[in-house]
Design goal:
about 290 residues, Rossmann fold, N-(1-d-carboxylethyl)-l-norvaline Dehydrogenase, domain 2, binds NADP nicotinamide-adenine-dinucleotide phosphate, 3-hydroxyisobutyrate dehydrogenase, NADP binding, NAD(P)-bd_dom_sf
């Protein structure tokens, strides 16, 4: 049963993530209205206590706090454009994955108090201690609605710029995919030689976990723009060794394409006279964008 002393909340989107958000709100006692393009997908949530709206406008009018969690920004604007009048004066929390530019554009598109969010969890993690969510945009919207937002997991407010939650989100996803890039290559390499992936996986986890400590030194070097601080593995040595990753892949007959892009960047730093410095200096080349 919803706790009627708690503020009503609307969730637009009953996909895997939207449904997890609705379930977390219901479990915490919030009267929750849900809308989904395909109405059947929201039916299980109604059975669990949610109220289903038949139109977007009806859903938006049901609660001051409107959370939207759809596939992408195109779907978000398609949906919200149908309820512009109903949105006026509401608090809009957008938990749809997108870029910083998309978030900034959306923040000014409607007459709302806008908060953007980046969910750092998969649906089963929602409302567990492992989940956290970045928020940025309206500070007052965040402060007022923090108790509701904390239902999903720890909330981390990263600034008034509505694009900053997306930047943090994409930053962490970049780190995650970088890890998977290395992991996929490593698993292709060893399994091509008949070593079972399950035998190798514990070693992969152990080594990659031990290397995460290196991120702190890299961060210090980047902030100080001094890549000679506490160098233990200079980039000239690393660049010479990196060549062997490609050679080893070729010997095994697997594609080096996932790992290949880093090699020329390391070699460029060495050629530019930074061979005694650390790997972190590669960010200087990345920041030049296409001007390298
Ligand atoms: N699942 C995860 O692990 C995870 C983790 C973090 C963040 N996210 C983010 O959460 C958001 C939702 O992900 P999800 O896992 O819920 O995806 P999903 O299960 O594929 O659900 C997609 C949702 O978007 C709706 N949708 C798609 N196109 C639409 C359109 N043109 N108009 C109206 N509605 C449309 C779908 O409605 P229908 O049911 O009608 O198709 C559904 O509600 C994404 O931005 C995703 O990146 C997901």
């Amino acid at each position: 049963m919803p706790d009627l002393s708690k503020p009503a909340v609307t969730v637009l989107g009953a996909g895997d993530m939207g449904s997890a958000l609705v379930r977390a709100l219901l479990a915490a006692g919030y009267p929750t209205t849900v809308w989904n393009r395909t109405p059947e997908r929201a039916k299980p949530l109604v059975a669990e206590g949610a109220t289903q709206a038949t139109t977007v406008a009806e859903a938006v009018e049901a609660s001051r706090l409107v959370i939207v969690c759809l596939l992408d920004y195109k779907s978000v604007t398609e949906v919200l454009d149908t309820a512009r009048d109903a949105l006026a004066g509401q608090v809009l929390v957008n938990l749809t994955n997108g870029t910083q530019g998309q978030a900034r554009e959306l923040a000014g598109r409607y007459d709302v108090d806008y908060l953007d969010g980046g969910i750092m969890a998969v649906p089963p993690m929602i409302a567990s201690p492992a989940a956290f969510v970045f928020y940025s945009g309206s500070r007052s919207a965040y402060d007022t609605n923090k108790p509701v937002l904390e239902v999903f997991g720890e909330s981390i407010y990263v600034g008034t710029d509505p694009g900053f939650a997306a930047l943090h989100d994409i930053g962490l996803l970049s780190g995650m995919y970088g890890m998977f890039v290395g992991g996929l290559h490593a698993l292709a390499l060893v399994t091509s030689a008949g070593i079972p992936a399950t035998k190798f996986a514990p070693l992969l986890k152990r080594y990659v976990s031990s290397m995460t400590g290196y991120v702190d030194r890299m961060a210090e070097q980047i902030d100080k723009q001094d890549y000679a601080i506490d160098v233990t593995s200079n980039i000239a040595m690393q660049s010479a060794g990196y060549v062997n990753l490609t050679l080893s892949a070729e010997e095994q007959g697997i594609s080096p394409e996932l790992l290949a892009p880093l090699g020329p960047l390391m070699a460029q730093r060495v050629a530019d006279g930074h061979g005694h410095e650390d790997l972190g200096g590669v960010v200087e080349l990345l920041k030049k964008g296409n001007k390298k």
